Amino acid sequence: MFPSRWVVLVLLFLLIRLPLLFFGLPATLSELHHVLVGERLGNGFMLYQDLYDTTGPLAAAVYWFLDWVAPRSYLVHRLLATALLLQQAFLLNLIFNRNQVHPAKSYVPALLYLLFGSIFFELDVLSPLLLGHSFVILAVYSLTAISKEAANAGRLFKAGFMLGVAALFYLPLVWFLVLGFFAIIYFASAAFRSTLLMLTGFVFPFTVVLTYFLYQNALVPFLEQGLAWSWQFTFTVGLPMQQVLLVAAIPLGVLALSFLSLPLISLGPNYQARFLQFMLIWLIVVVLVLFSGHDGSAKGLILLLPLLAYFGIFLFSLWDNRIWIAEILFLVVVAGVIAVRYNPLGLVYEHLGIQPELVQVRDAPEYRQVSGERLLVLGPDVNYYQQNSLGSPYLRWDLAQPNFGRLNHYDALFTILQDLRKDPPSYIVDQQNLMPQLQYKLPLVFQRYDRVGTGPFYKLVR
Fold first, then answer.
1. CB within 10 Å: which end of the chain, N or C, has fewer?
2. For residue 351, with 0-12 CB atoms within 10 Å meaning exposed, 13-18 middle and 19 or more buried, which class applies?
């Protein structure tokens, strides 16, 4: 294959993706959240102990590093997300071509991966899921390589290690251990020994992270917020599920048509049939990850991209004698993707009932009343942090509820006092009308604030 093919593919991907990155929509609430996490850690605070959050420890480390490199740069986040999507697409394409899982080698899987990975602006976000998914594909690269090398201890350990790293970015990705187990059954020998090697590799990064938090006296907060919270099956809804399904209508339609085309495809060697079974298990694992995830938004479409890359090629290869049908179908899909991404004339989202503003940072006068200050927002609206920094451990209101939702309990009041006494924020934004009660019950901290006008702002004056 000529290098010009992948060069054209990259240029096409950048042509679709980059204009919106540089000149497009405002930042999303997820990106603001990630920036605040990195900024808080960059100021020397400890994750889970001085910042109550469920972001995976390795994802938080990436946000801290990006804050150190380019503070509050959404563009840097989006460019890194673009680079990761490219890496995932070409690595997955390499896996397919190396193992000859399709009738012919091509760059079509990478093309489909990159095309559908650009269908909606939320997929531009450098999410923990996107970060972890890169390591899932690295694990698959190792797991499928053992098919021609029998039981390879190094590759099995590496695959387990990559899955452990992926879970430390986004914990629900731990379900891909199931895929690893089936990969061993399909592609390796000595299943029990191979499984132990993979599990040993998986446990290793968790052991390192647990040891780190143990020495930082933050082990219990990590276990509670970094591990246990993800299994409460509570969703932070960005877009309602109906709108997510509308955004995903084109890729889901292509995936459904690809499944319908499977009976018409003749798979060659026995290995191709086993790989098909492997990808069907992948589909089940994706459903488990989506069900276990705590972020109900269009970012979950990232998990469908490998399935679209694998099964989609069967749909487009049906028309050997009528290649023009495949070309027309592909052009229709490209037009649909561009229409959903760019919303021409503002008509697509309006007619479909999609409300992108639900997941975007809103620019309103009330959010610009205070700038360059350290805030505590008593409520779920993080838009107040656009021009300000986080001045307390309470970034997520749902994680603040065990304290601010139980002001009649001594332990909750004591925790709030300990969190705010030494380093109180410059302003408090009281969305829940809690300040009168807090000033009465914790005067040592909250009597130091005076209300600014009749709005929700309280300023530290004493």
1. C
2. exposed
